[in-house]
Amino acid sequence: MISPQPFLSPEKLARHGTRQCGNEIVVDYEKEAKHVSITARKQPHLSAMADVAPVVLNDEILEWPKNDKRRFLHVVYRVGDLDRSIKFYTEAFGMTLLRKKDVPKDKYSSAVLGFGQEESTFVVELIHNYGVENYDIGTGFGHFGISTTDIYQLVETIRAKGGKITQEAGAAEGTTAVVAFVQDLDGYEFELFQRDATPEPLCQVMFHVVDLDRSIEFYEKALGMNHIVTIDRPEEKDTIAMLGYGDDPNQIAILELIYNYDVTEYTKGNAYSHIAISTDDVYKSAEVVKLVTLELGGKIIRQPGPFPGTNTKFTAFEDPEGWKTVLIDNQDFLKGLEE
Prior knowledge:
- The chain is an alpha+beta fold.
- 21% of the residues lie in helices and 38% in strands.
- It is built from eight helices and 19 strands.
- It has helices at 10-15, 59-62, 64-67, 82-93, 151-160, 212-223, 282-296, 330-338; strands at 18-21, 24-29, 32-35, 72-78, 96-103, 108-114, 123-129, 141-148, 164-171, 178-183, 189-194, 202-208, 226-233, 238-244, 254-260, 272-279, 299-306, 313-318, 324-329.
- Strands 5-6-7-4-16-19-18-17 form an eight-stranded mixed β-sheet. An eight-stranded mixed β-sheet has the order 9-10-11-8-12-15-14-13, with helices on one face.
- α6 (212-223) runs antiparallel to α7.
- The longest helix has 15 residues, at 282-296.
- The radius of gyration is 20 Å and the shape is globular.
- The N and C termini lie far apart (51 Å).
């Protein structure tokens, strides 16, 4: 039985060789239509990790993430030349530099850029460690996503500013949806989407996992994300899942997880760092994460509490496959921006 899903992005469907038919998602494989469940499914080829002993969880505590006030705040990754990246992100992508700081004591500098203000939109935070010119992106990280109202112009601007075009802008076969792939000056890949104006132009973070079902369950339980869709692509030998805080991928930032059949290991490198997400109660959120890690794996890597030197409360953890997330107190985050 396929759940109703009226909000699935047309360009995302097109990219994965799918189309929407009424309340169903239909995947076309060599002219043979196959229906794909939008709810989480257990598939033999997705069980790459060892079984974890069952753990009885407190249902009341586990309801907290669904009732919490959450959104994607920023995604953090490292670059070899901060000023060069700022110039490229502002001139090629059209982002605005929101803040910049230098921390000599810890030998790093950072910059926050975005398509809107941090109070309400998902942004990027770029980190540069003194003396480090190159980072290893690894094989596990996939790409970021940017939506634009003029993809052809954006591609040409990126090309003119020195970016690499890995897939030219164009309509996917059999549809009018338009996508492109580009790389910034450090080799990070971005998928571009042609869309109407959206509140979240920075719309996606994608990375690979080896056990998709377990990862979906982790992000649903530990972080309260909504599992929007799963698309299985046998011809590409992969399966993709999209999660986020909401139902309409055109209006929210999305976490996209991809599983490649029979791949049991990826390298994470040292370039990509983490996603930061808001919460109204860092301590309660950390307790939920702790319980879920007992069931599914992962670990708390920073106990909840104030960040050293500030009053901003946060906690940090890794999912079962080592991808890092930081939860930040909503009110502390907003106060920090005012300061």
